Amino acid sequence: MNKEFIDALNVLAAERNLDKEELLASIEEALEQAFERNVKPGKQIEVAVDPETGEIDVLVIRRVVEEIEDPDKEILLAEALELDEDVEVGMEMEFPVDPENFTRIAVQTTKQVITQKLREKEREHVFEEYKDRAGDVMTAVVSRTDNKRNVFVDLGRGEAIMPPREQIQGERYMVGMRLKVFVAKVELSTRGPSILVSRAAPELLEYLMRQEIPEVADGTVELKAIAREAGQRSKVAVTSTNPNVDPIGACIGHRGSRIQAVTAELQRERVDIISWDPSPREFIRNALSPAKVGSIELDPEAGEARVNVGSDQLSLAIGKGGQNVRLAAKLSGYKIDLVASESISDLDAAMAAAASRQSDLTATGGGDQKRAAFDALFATPEPAPDAEAADDAPSEGDAEEGSAPA
What we know:
The strands form 4 sheets. This protein has a 5-stranded antiparallel β-sheet with strand order 7-6-5-8-9. Strands 1, 2, 3 and 4 form a 4-stranded mixed β-sheet that branches. Strands 10-11-12 form a 3-stranded mixed β-sheet, with helices on both faces. A hairpin with a 3-residue loop joins β10 (221-229) and β11 (233-240). It folds into 4 domains: 3-128, N Utilization Substance Protein A, Chain:P, domain 4 (2-Layer Sandwich), CATH 3.30.1480; 132-198, CATH 2.40.50.140; 213-276, GMP Synthetase, Chain A, domain 3 (2-Layer Sandwich); 280-376, 2-Layer Sandwich (GMP Synthetase, Chain A, domain 3), CATH 3.30.300. The protein contains 15 helices and 15 strands. α2 (20-39) runs antiparallel to α4 (104-130) and α9 packs antiparallel against α11. Mean pLDDT is 82; it is low at 384-406. The longest helix has 27 residues, at 104-130. The chain has helices spanning 3-15, 20-39, 77-83, 104-130, 202-212, 214-217, 247-252, 257-264, 280-287, 314-318, 323-332, 346-363, 367-378, 385-392, 396-402; strands at 44-49, 56-65, 74-76, 92-97, 137-145, 151-154, 159-162, 178-189, 192-198, 221-229, 233-240, 270-275, 293-299, 304-310, 335-341. By secondary structure, the protein is α+β, with helices and mostly antiparallel strands.
C-alpha cells in the first residue's frame, strides 16, 4: 500500500459517509486474516497500517513460556532472553514479517475481505440512520422491481422493499417515480438492514390528512379511527374539540378541495369522513353510512353487534363485495351482523338512534337527569296556587259592573 491508497480510502470514506478509522481497522483485520490463512498459517498476526503513508507493519506475536506447547504462538524463555534481556514468562514478543511475502492468493483474499467489511460498515450505518425512522412517512424513489412483484425504493442512504401486500391495489410503479411511503419496520439481519415500507398502511392516510387539513394538524379535529382498503375505499372517524368547528366539513373542505388533495396521493381512493360518537351504537350507525339502519343490539363482551336494516337499505349497508360493512367493523372494532327487516323510514331510524342513545346514557348513570330535562321541555306546566286564587277573585272592573246602582 502507498499514499495513493490512503487518498483513495479518504475519497471512499467521504462518498459513502464512512468513518476512516473504522475502515482502516477493518482493513487491518482483513490483512491479518489473509496472512494467517495464506502466509503464516497458525501464527498470531497483527497488522498496522499507517494512516498517513499507507505503509504496512506485519508482526508475528509469540508468548514467552518455559515449555512450548504451540511453537507457532510461543517461544522459549531462553531463546527470548537472547533477543531481549528484559523479557519474562507471560510477555508477548513481536517479530516483523516482510510484506513482500504477501502472495497473490493473499492479495485476492484481502480484497474480498475488505469488500465485505465495507459492505458491513455501510449496512451498519444505514441501520443506525433508519432504525429510529420506523413509523415515519418519507419520500422515496422507485429504483427497481422483481418478478415477485416486490417494489424496491431508494430512501436516500438505503433501499427499502415494498411487497405486494403493502402496495396500493391497481397502482403502477415505474422506475424513477417519486411517492410517499410509510416506514413500517426496520430490522438488522445477517444480510444487512431490512427496511419495510408501505403505501397501504392507515398511517399514510393519517399523515396526508395532517398535511392537508390545518384543523387536524393543530388538534382541533381529532382522527379517532381509520379503516382502509388501499386503493379502493377508506373510512375515517373524526371529532372536534371545538364546538364551533364542524369536523366533517373541515376535513372535506370547500367543494371537497382538502379531501381531494389527500386522495390525489392515493390514486383517487375514496375516503368517507364520518362522525365519531362515544356511544358504540351510534358509532356503528355512523360507520355504516350512507345506509340508514334501525335498532342495534350490542354484546360488548363478545364484541358483536346485531344491526337491523331495512330491505331497501341492506345492499347499501353491505356495500360492493361487503366492503362497507367490512370497513365499519374494522372502524368500530365490533363484528357486525346485518339482519334484514321491513323497510325502515328516516323517522324510524331517528327514533331508533334516540332510543339507543338514551339507553347508553342510562347505562352510564347520566340518563335520569337528562331524561328529566327532556321531559320538562314538553310537560304541561301546572298553575301556581296564587295564580289560581287570583283567577277566581273578581277583578276591580268586574266588581263595579256587578254592583247594584245607587
